[in-house]
């Protein structure tokens, strides 16, 4: 469990994926806010403080990359993780400014381990 409670924003248009990640993050001791799409994630981010953001790559309207660019412009120190089902995008997403990329389906504790690594760097 983290020494302090970190607040994480997760944007994912599939509610079942959001709920599964919420369970994992709450179990690991993180505070969690979910967004149903990129626009909602951006709106929520602008009004709150988050220690880390997780963005699904493929979302209707604003996709994860659109939101990541806006977040990095406003808050360059905020780590952002992309979650995608397309493992061919890893290099492109890292080059675009993501701090880490995870491939769906997320298995085991990989998301919690990645979050912990990125939060230690902050």
Provide structural commentary.
By secondary structure, the chain is an alpha/beta fold. It has a single domain, classed as Rossmann fold (3-Layer(aba) Sandwich), CATH 3.40.50. It has helices spanning 15-27, 38-47, 64-74, 90-95, 110-121, and strands at residues 7-11, 31-35, 52-56, 80-84, 100-103. A 5-stranded parallel β-sheet has the order 2-1-3-4-5, with helices on both faces. Helix 2 runs parallel beside helix 3 (64-74). The protein is globular and about 30 Å long.
Integer count of domains:
1
Mean pLDDT: 93
- Assigned CATH class: Alpha Beta
Q: What would the principal axes of the Cα set say about the shape?
A: globular
**Which fold name fills CATH's third level, the topology?**
Rossmann fold
Low-confidence stretches: none
Q: CA-to-CA gap between the ends?
A: 17 Å
Q: From the alpha carbons, calculate the radius of gyration and give it in angstroms.
A: 13 Å
- The beta-strand count equals 5
Instruction: Please name the fourth-level CATH homologous superfamily.
Output: Response regulator
Helix and strand run? EHEHEHEHEH
Tell me what the CATH architecture is. 3-Layer(aba) Sandwich
| Biggest beta-sheet profile | 5 strands, parallel
Which strands sit side by side, in order, in the main sheet?
A: 2-1-3-4-5
Classify the beta-strand content into a percent band: 15-25%
């Amino acid at each position: 469990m983290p020494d302090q409670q970190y607040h994480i924003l997760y944007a994912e248009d599939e509610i079942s994926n959001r709920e599964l990640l919420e369970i994992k993050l709450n179990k690991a001791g993180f505070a969690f806010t979910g967004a149903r799409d990129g626009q909602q994630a951006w709106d929520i981010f602008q009004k709150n403080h988050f220690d880390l953001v997780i963005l699904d790559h493929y979302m209707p309207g604003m996709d994860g990359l659109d939101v990541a660019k806006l977040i990095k412009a406003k808050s360059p120190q905020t780590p952002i993780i992309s979650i995608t089902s397309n493992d061919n995008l890893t290099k492109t997403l890292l080059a675009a400014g993501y701090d880490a990329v995870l491939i769906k389906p997320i298995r085991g504790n990989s998301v919690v381990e990645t979050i912990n690594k990125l939060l230690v760097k902050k």
